[in-house]
Amino acid sequence: MTMNPKIESKNVNLYYGAFHALKGITMSVQPNTVTALIGPSGCGKSTYLRLFNRMNDLIPGIRIEGDVQIDGKDIYSKSLRVDELRKKVGMVFQKPNPFPKSIFENVAYGLRVNGLNHASFVEERVETSLRQAALWEEVKDKLKKSAFELSGGQQQRLCIARALAIEPSVLLMDEPASALDPISTSKIEELIYELKSKYTIIIVTHNMQQAGRVSDKTAFFYLGELIEFDDTQVIFTNPQNPRTQSYVTGRFG
Amino acid sequence: MTLKRFIEKLIEGMLMISSSISALAVLLIVLFLFKEGFSLFSTSPLENHNVIVVSKGNPIEKLTAPQIKDIFDQKITNWQTVGGKNDTIILFTINDVSNYFSEEEIGENFEYLPEKLSRLTDSIPSMLAVYPDKYLAKDFKGKTVSVAKNNIPDFISGREWFPTAEPAVQLGVLPLILGTLMVSFFAILFALPVGLATAIYMAEVADERLRKILKPIIELLAGIPSVVYGFFGLIVIVPLIHDTFNLPVGETALAGSIVLAIMALPTIITVSEDAIRNTPRSMKEASLALGANKWQTIARVIIPNSMSGISAAAILGIGRAIGETMAV
Ligand SMILES: Nc1ncnc2c1ncn2[C@@H]1O[C@H](COP(=O)(O)OP(=O)(O)OP(=O)(O)O)[C@@H](O)[C@H]1O
Ligand SMILES: [Mg+2]
Questions:
Q1: Fewer CB within 10 Å: C terminus or N terminus of chain B?
Q2: What's the whole-number mean pLDDT along residues A137-156?
Q3: CATH number for the domain that contains residue A195
Q4: Is B315 helix (H, G, I), strand (E, B) or coil?
């Protein structure tokens, strides 16, 4: 591959107070690919994911060492504005977390906080995002209704639409389908597959089949270390590390 | 198994009894208050079993308590004002007896007084006499005037509050109600922005260490008795307002509002801070992840989400302050 990586981390260490949660992680992600982060609970997948939109900054007592770059720029440099970074790097959380607002306003939120308030522009962008998230047909007649009236799966797709509305170039997803039924899950997996053409996606998942279905690359974490990072195909059929082998075949974790 | 169920039932029953007892007690207290309150209205407002009498020829049948007070204050001096003939009112009270009669005329034990009084009112047609009903002659020739009862509409809208006025009690609570409303309105106006700002600062901006110092101090403020606040208001705020606005007296509604606002602040701060802290972290993170900054998140997500808690805080705070009007 000769392409410049979209996302890169070089020898990143992260400490929650005295606890060493990420140990020297080096990894690079190509644009327009889907990367799956797998590993047993508590191994640092979420922590690593939240590094890229600087969500960890909110936690008191945290310390981050090393170099994290997106589009070749150090995202932890002093001159970088965090809110600008987060417009470029969207995030979908494990549990659907819509705002207590209408469906329309949920999707429009990201636009409004960025000062984009022109009515016809907002309407158009909300519709486009809801279509991309495969939710438009289900909600087009009740955009004024509260987002809490939607089912869990619909709420999660609403959260995806909300993240897409500000047109990020990177999408971080932390177990986006873990709280959903199989039908909603497969809808979201299809969605990820379609979104790949426009976005670079990193997804945390506990579901091996899901990782196999949606991702191009897979990274296996264990106790804060990146054990193995390779093509998904390789990780699931011919892993180099015995620990990866036993995890993906379900022998531990 | 059955014993466990029995105990459960027992606890359930005890809870039910205690809650119904407390509900009943509250109900009884309210009923008692109403009963006491209504007796004010059902009895004649005339003080000390007085009677009001006029001569037979006087067309006046009835007077209201405020009219009587105005007559005694000499604001009303002509019968025409209260619906009678055009004639000056000559007021006579029991204290004036010595101006009209000598001691011998009355008798040693006032035994001749009723008859004398009866004749007096008869002879002076424009006299309004007020004296204890025990001096009312059995064969009284004049006419007693009845006093309109204090009724509820007048109670609400009356402007005068003289619960101990002689000879007739006046119960107008309009200025009390309006005053309370106005003072508390301004108190909310002062206290809510300041309290909310402090709560937001403590919950979202201040770091943990500062919060640990601030929170107990504010909770301590909530425990200070109202008299102290009132004293503080009198000693500090009243002169301050007096000096800055050059008012003749500083004891204005403004001073009251400020003291009330200060009293309400600790409650408003602690309750709304809790409400703000209860905003789910996931909701804050969702907002931040969309590129909103801290202040946008506070204004658009955290405050709307904790609105019910904040309004409860305002009501509780002002409620506490109003309840302790001692300060004002
Ligand atoms: N805010 C925090 N403060 C202190 N320690 C934390 C904090 N968040 C996470 N940790 C610790 O860091 C480690 C990694 O946590 P992380 O949430 O990244 O795990 P994960 O791989 O996402 O697990 P899961 O699959 O259960 O979500 C865990 O041991 C966790 O206890
Ligand atoms: Mg996690």
A1: N
A2: 92
A3: 3.40.50.300
A4: helix
Q: How much helix, strand and coil, in percent to the nearest 5, is found in chain A?
A: 40, 25, 35
**Domains held by chain A: number:** 1
Check pLDDT > 90 for residue A130.
yes
Residue with tokens 């000769």: A2
Please report whether residue A2 resides in a domain.
no
Task: Average the pLDDT over B31-49 and give the result.
Answer: 63
Q: Determine the structural domain holding residue A74 and report its residue range.
A: 7-248
Return phi, psi of residue A29, to 5°.
-120, 130
Judge if the upstream peptide bond of residue A176 is cis by omega within 30 degrees of 0. no
CA distances to A201, B155, B158, B179 from B170, rounded to whole Å, are 80, 9, 8, 18
Assigned domain for A64 exists:
yes
| A→B interface, C-beta within 8 Å | 53, 55, 58, 60, 83-84, 86-87, 90-91, 93, 95, 97-101, 109-110, 112-114, 159, 162-163, 166
Q: Find, among A235, A223, A247, A186, the residue nearest to A36 by Cα.
A: A235
Q: If you average pLDDT over residues A211-228, what whole number do you get?
A: 93
Q: What is the pTM of this model?
A: 0.68
- The reply to whether A63 falls in a domain is yes
Token reading at B95 = 């204290």
Average pLDDT over residues A213-222: 94
Model confidence band, residue A98 (pLDDT cutoffs 50, 70, 90): very high
Distance between CA B205 and CA A248 in Å, rounded?
44
Confidence of residue B250 (pLDDT cuts 50, 70, 90): very low
CATH of domain B174-323: 1.10.3720.10
Q: Given its phi and psi angles, is residue A234 left (phi above 0), alpha (psi -120 to 50 degrees) or beta?
A: alpha
Is pLDDT at B48 greater than 80 in this prediction?
no
- The answer to whether residue A212 is domain-embedded is yes
CA A65 to chain centre: 22
Higher per-residue confidence, B176 vs B96: B96
CATH class of B50-170: alpha beta
Cα maximum dimension of chain B: 102
Q: How far, in Å, is the centroid of ligand 1 from the Cα of A253?
A: 15
The yes-or-no verdict on residue B122 having pLDDT over 80 is no
